[in-house]
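>> received
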Amino acid sequence: MENKRKKTNYKFRRFIGIILLILIIFFVYKSIRGKTYTNHKTAFPTFTLYKDEVDAKSYNILKEKVYYSNADGIALYNASEGQKVPVIYDIVVINLMNDVSSLKDELIKVNSALNYKLNKKPTEKISEEEIESIKKIQKDIRDENLLQAIEDINNLDLNTKQSISISELTELMNLSVEELNSKKQELLKQISRSNIYYQAEYSGIVSYKIDGLEKYYKPDDLSIYTRDYLREHSRRIENETKTQVEKGDMLFKLIDNFSYNMALSIEDLSSLGDIKIGDKLNVELSENNIIRGNVAKINKSKDKSGVVILYLDEMIDKLYSERIRNVKIVKSKQKCYKIPKSAIIKRKGIFGVYVQEIHGLVKFVPIDVIQPLNSSSYVSSGDKNGVIKISDKEYKTITINDSIVLNPKTVDDSQILN
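>> returned
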């Protein structure tokens, strides 16, 4: 009986021992496996373009002239907004709405008298001039250009052969051909006075966006453009293009499209570094829309702010219509990676990140921080081989395919390969 009890206790102790051994092996295995196969929270770098920029406000200083109506009448506009026109191009014609019907009747009689004097016999055949006039009228109607159509119809009336009795020309027939031609030119001159033509004095851009600041922004004296001056002359008006105009109304402005200036108001001139006259600056108007100009004048304020004035000869068609705008001066730009700021650590005096390898192991990879932000940082992508230089030593940096550990504190020293 006692032997049986001893045998039972031995089996029980053996069973307990086996269970304890299994538990020990299990916990050791779990401990080792847990350290080796920990998966960290990671993210991949974002390839982007970093731009070192300075905020500024720009003011266009253009070679421009505003044209005003010299009389009351109906305005006919022959150029669209932003259209480039050559010199002596008819931009606007104002019809004064004068009654010139009697003058036109007299001109028809003078033409008939001249035809008799010169033995030009009436013919039913339509002349080339009449055909061209008819084509112009048809085009005016298609374009819904009614004022021009009326003018061309009047011209057709003057050039079309009229049935005039010789008895109506008695007084005119006593005049010589030279006198008749002189009278004809005088009548044409009087008839033409019913219209006022506004022509381009030079080739340039036509704009109806008149802001009322044209008289304050002229390229004559660049030294006047201080920050105070720009602030005082920044209130714009909106001009409305009208068909029925009165004397003194603004019609349009003509802008020289060859060169212009731009004043850049800057809070801190030192942010541009040691700039001087003749240096080139890149100004970003909008995304991927950058103009390049030469520094023509620097007007410093009593504080650290000031105005930099550029000379430009490109892209005026992109910015002429808006005199004042917020811009960025691009000092430099480079391709780089954007990574979470939380991933960056400093190890042995070098900034870097942990890149996850297999089985939860990680590798420390040096980085070169270009610009830290609130939650992320721009870091260099290195040369074409992905190599960066830190304190005259070269290091292989991260790549676009590296899985970066977001929280380095979760990495145990035993998991670091280097």
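>> Helices lie at 2-36, 101-117, 128-142, 146-159, 170-173, 177-192, 227-232, 316-319.
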